[in-house]
Amino acid sequence: MALLGLLFFWLGLWMAARLYPSEYDWRYMTISSLVYPDRNPDGYAWAWSGLILCASGGLCWAAALLRRRSAGALALVVGYVCMACCTWLPRWFPGFGRGHDLLAVAAFVGLCTGMVRLAYHEGGRSRWLQTSARPRLCAGLLAAAALAPILMAGATQAYIAHARPDLPWVGLVWRARGAPIFLSFAFWEWMACAVFTAYTIGLCLATMSGGQPTALRA
Description:
globular, 68% helix, mainly alpha
């Protein structure tokens, strides 16, 4: 179910981008631009569907991990619930303010926390890590790699606020001004989605066999 959810996630965002009323450049435009009905009236439903189906599939996986008391399962549940809510909750409750942004951040934090802990947990079980000289260090590096896009997004925003206050919020104006891609929040947001996709696929396959970890405890 989690793998199917990932398929629907990317399909929904791809269709939403295709139906965007103007040019959509993922390097400089955030995922939120695809979700808002006023910005993407013809394609927002595809983005909503992709996010909700992805969250639903992820919740099935996280619930199974929760029953096994796997590390990070509760954080994954919180992350997937926030992912589902960030689409329809602000729409149903307009007075919620910047509810979409808050829920999107909460979804990223929950999913990132859950995957880091689960990657460390499952990494300790893998034979190729257990045969390494420092299995704990290798498992930690494997888990920490999931944080890289989030850390880069935060670092670039801090740099822009200090060194490039002339730049507005990320958008096509960045491309017109020749701003580098690696400073774009949108670029790192999409990179985070790609990394989370890869980790979800790997962790789903790793946890399908069941059993309890024997080497590392997270």
